[in-house]
Amino acid sequence: MTTGGAIRHEPSTDRPARESVRVASDALIALVAALAAAALSVGLVPLQTQTVLSIVVTASLIVLALVITGNYRHQGAQLQEAALRLAAACALAAGALALFSLVANANVFAPQVSVTAASLAFPMLLFARLWNRVRRRSVKAPGASRTIVVGARDAARAVIRLLDQRESLPFDVVGCVDDDVATRSVEGVPVLGKPADLGALIDAHSIETIIVAATSARRRLVKIVMAACANAGGRRPAVKVLPHLDQLLTGRVEYSPVRDVRLEDLLQRDPVEVDPSRVAPHLENRVVLVTGAGGSIGSELCRQISRFNPKLLVLVGHGENSLVAIDQELRTELGFTKTEVALADVADGFRVRSIFSQYRPHIVFHAAAHKHVPILESNVCEAVRNNVFGTHAVALAAAAAGVAKFVMISTDKAVNPTSVMGATKRVAELICQSFERRTGTEFVSVRFGNVLGSRGSVIDVFKKQIEMGGPLTVTHPDMVRYFMTIPEAVALVLDATAIGRDGQVCVLDMGKPVSVVELAENLVRLCGLRPYDDVDIVFTGIRPGEKLREEILTSHELDNPDEHPSDDPTAHERLFVAQQERVVYEKLVGILTDLEVAVRTPDAQTVIATLRRLVPSFVPGDHLRGDDAESATHVTPLDAAGPLAPPPGEADTIGEAPEQAPVQAQRANVVSLEEALAARSAGIDASDQAEVGRP
Fold first, then answer.
1. 464: Cα separation from own chain's centroid
2. Which of 413, 425, 463, 547 is the catalytic position?
3. How far is 321 from 299, CA to CA, in rounded Å?
């Protein structure tokens, strides 16, 4: 029965019966030992009263000695411990019988029978225990899974003893593997080799389940186990990971059809660590503002920033529920109360400037963005409004308010994008680059790939599918992605804050790309199930905007891949700086004006065409190209007519759009970089200046 989700084992109702059977069997063995001793010492024919009494007293004292030395309280003890307890019981019985023979009448008690019986009882009882262990391992539940236990220490011994005692558990332990080559067996189970030998052992012994019963170096062992399962020739075994002892003691191990899988186990590598001393000067006793603070990345940014004790942490976002959730978490769980919640749509320039004017942040983390690729493919104008013009509005407000550093969260999908989301994030990078050396604010973009554990991420989807019995859906068998955990990515974002310089695009080295199919298979195994047997995996086809492989750098961006591109000797080895060309703000903002007209019209086809003027490497899918797919594939290279110059003829067409006049009337909401800088130098709030310029 469970209470509060935690597993609780109730006492077994048949335990007294089992103990009675053990005592009776030991009494029978003691009686046989006494009979054998009598036959050897005095003979059984003719049977004397003295001999019968000696046999009964001897058998009774042996059983009493077994009880006194705790043989029935430690039924699951190691074999060596069990043997020592048996030896102690037999020695105690022999001593008691010898003492009894000295005070008893020799006519009614034969002392030679007693001492010989105690000596014979020890090997007989030890053999019985060995036989019982072998019998329990051979008589398992129907369909018991052939199992290898990883580990040879206390946790592994506890697992093997438990499986020995519970014949109903469907595991047949074939052997153990451990790095300690000196250990030959664990609880009578042979050590078959090292963890590195698992691949061969799985095939040789037809292993169906692997139990990781090691608390030290567990992540390394899980990585080895997963690699061995992936390389297994036949059916791949299920993997079960023993929880840490502190989780068991504190009741944090809960029953669930899907165990709480550690995301680090799925990545099969050590987590990234950063030096907090490098980040502290930028955050301690500073006013820090985070946009998208209620999202997966934004909320983790707030958690990690709060540890540096900022003067004030301003949480900006559009969803009030998520903002309330992270604010309460910071206050109640982390004990950080210096927060302010600001509801805002980042594309609303007036509201954003009002927030910046009120709080005057020292550093800004811009994490607000629409990120779900398939959704944005069918919501092109909203994607541009939020990701492009939201970034522009926040960047302008930061410049006007005198922010020291502006950090924009980008994505690997911005590299040679095939999706609207990737193209909009690349434009957001260009906006930040175009501000280089134009303001007193440093603008840094940080680019990384997929994060595990975010809302709506592949792991969440897979876990829900497993709970429903499957199947797991993967778009393509060759799909690979770069993955990081959210805390890892945010820690490196903070590190990039200290390292990154104005106009730079910092790129997180996310290790080797991970096959999404293998990720699904490993998640199934870590849930104690078998992929394709217990839970199926099916392929649904690539969705709009997706590509098989993401990239973190273009060949142009990394000029020397053999060396770390940063000149900073303190730079983190997992951070790189993409080599970028200078972006001319005046030409960029001209195309942004055309893009805004298309968004407000709204005209998705013109939006796509304008995005391609900004990002020539953007290759939209056929579903976005419209009827004129051939013309959509041609974009004038940037170096053909200057940085960010529009292709011939397109500027006039867009400029003559009938919707331009009403749109221009609405553009009082937009403050230019020149207006923001003028307000900054004059010490005036940019929003006030915008109000003065409005009709």
1. 16
2. 413
3. 12
Burial of 188 (0-12, 13-18, 19+ CB in 10 A): middle
pLDDT digits (tens, 9 = 90+) for 402-450: 999 999 999 888 888 999 999 999 999 999 999 988 888 999 999 887 7
The C-alpha atoms of residue 314 and residue 405 are separated, in whole angstroms, by 15
Query: CA 636, CA 629: separation in Å to the nearest integer?
Result: 16
Nearest-10 crossing angle of helices 686-693, 349-359: 140
> Which amino acid does the sequence have at 213?
A
CA distance 26 to 24: 5
The distance of Cα 203 from the centroid of its chain, to the nearest Å, equals 29
Enclosing H/E stretch for 289: strand 287-291
The token pair that represents 23 in the structure block: 């005592």
Strand 185-186, strand 483-485: pairing: unpaired
How far is it, in rounded angstroms, from Cα 91 to Cα 84?
10
Q: Return the amino acid letter for 254.
A: E
Burial 117-139 (b: 16+ CB within 10 A, else e): bbebbbebbbebbeeebeeebee
Structure tokens of 318? 């559009």
Is there a catalytic annotation at residue 194? Answer: no
Q: Is 405 helix (H, G, I), strand (E, B) or coil?
A: strand
pLDDT in tens, 460-504: 788 888 877 778 999 889 888 877 788 888 988 898 888 888 888
What CA–CA distance (Å, rounded) separates 92 from 117? Answer: 13
Q: Nearest CA to 425 among 437, 440, 434, 413?
A: 413
Give the number of residues written for the chain: 695
The helix, strand and coil proportions of the chain, stated in percent and rounded to the nearest 5, come to 50, 15, 40
- Long-range interactions of 638-646: CB distance < 8 A, separation 24+: 642/584, 642/587, 643/581, 643/582, 643/583, 643/584, 643/587, 644/430, 644/583, 644/584, 644/587, 644/588, 644/591, 644/613, 644/614, 645/587, 646/590, 646/591, 646/594, 646/613
Asked if 593 contacts 666 with a C-beta cutoff of 8 angstroms, the reply is: no
Its pTM surpasses 0.70 = no
Q: What end-to-end distance do the CA atoms of the chain give, in Å?
A: 71
Tokens 């069918």, residue? 378
